[in-house]
User: Fold this.
Amino acid sequence: MSDQNDAIRINDEAARGAVTNTGLRYVLGFSLGFAVIAMSLVWIIPALYNASH
Assistant:
């Protein structure tokens, strides 16, 4: 008979229901960086064009 106070140990993958370290954080990081650069260019290029004319 098991004691009710025994700790239950579950590994990370079983608890999350997914495999870790698949590189998803890198994809999200690069996507965020690309979005920031693209939005900056969309704002900066017209501002420079309007300032020169």
